[in-house]
């Protein structure tokens, strides 16, 4: 295996570069238009959005060498002590927390939205002693961990939705803090760590998802804990102090599995961790690559046993087949050749569609068909849709899916805020007008480009020298991107790469004197 490690490493770095170039391409040449992509995009023309996106990309491209030059000079002048760094960062996080709550109050965000609202509704039913039948939660049990967290918050802080917002705000503060500490584990200097973490602090598109209190913010929290322990493992392994390395891998696996239970897409993180540990380690130490999968198996089994013991559902067949999401991922294909120009940018492949969901629910909830029979029906539809496309049409459909998921810096955040206000238009000028709307949207796009370009530049920097974290992150980012080519499309999903990307950016700016494995 060691003989081929260099080739595998190079493959994943090249693949991660390709995926991010594709993501950037779609933001400039084929951006989607509509409310879920941004309230700002929804009220401006495609040409305007392309011009703004192009300008943001050029600005970000020029920003990287400016930051690099600044850090190269100032790291010699400013050697920030740990005490100063943590005092400064604590003050910043306090300001961030207060500003977030003030903005939520200003904008009028007052109610749960989308799946979080549905989850709360079913929690209310349980609280009243009502029994669940064949319904949304029976079909989507992946929201049960979120429901139990909501229940705990209500128990300790009362039923007001504001208490959920505050807890999720604090959860996100911890996510930012743990990401910063992960940078420190990777031996990134205090100054560079402070600069890199600003990407997450100023990621408005993620901050606006905090009051939504859905699985996106929850899974980011578990990912930050996972990567904190994983970078702790890398630190001990690099220093040759293996005393706690196995403990760190166990903790990494536990929180990664909790992340998977909170959101299914975290499965890619579990796979990436296992694959990295199997490939990068030598000899008998490769066996630790099995640890994440072992914890995944037992964690999933124990969670299932716990759910069954609660007698929430009428039977144990709950959870609609995953083939549903693959089928939905091919919705709206092939793309019609005769689409009017004004509709081309609004056409979305693979996004959530109520008719697709109804098709599955008719079989799963109403007719109570077995999962195996439903999967057969899904596969029939999948095959029909694939056969209906030639190679060019398939490439067009995949490019559209990339644009849906990766092409929106907004990540559906402004639309979720709009829903959280009860669709009150009064304050939506913040996202829509030509001044504040342009500023907010531009910041979102710059942050998105910082992430994409950071992945590309860090891969280029370490292309000839194997850096363990860059190796792991390239496996994860490549796998996650490919997975979303197959899965249902949503702008929210792209936030799944933010934390590993920020850690990679920290390594990009850090002048490392460590000796890693060289490619020869």
TrEMBL record:
Ranges that cross the membrane: 7-29, 49-72, 84-104, 164-183, 189-210, 217-235, 247-280, 287-307, 438-457, 469-487, 493-509
Keywords from the named record: Membrane, Transmembrane, Transmembrane helix
Please tell me the species this chain comes from.
Enterococcus plantarum
Q: What is this protein called?
A: Uncharacterized protein
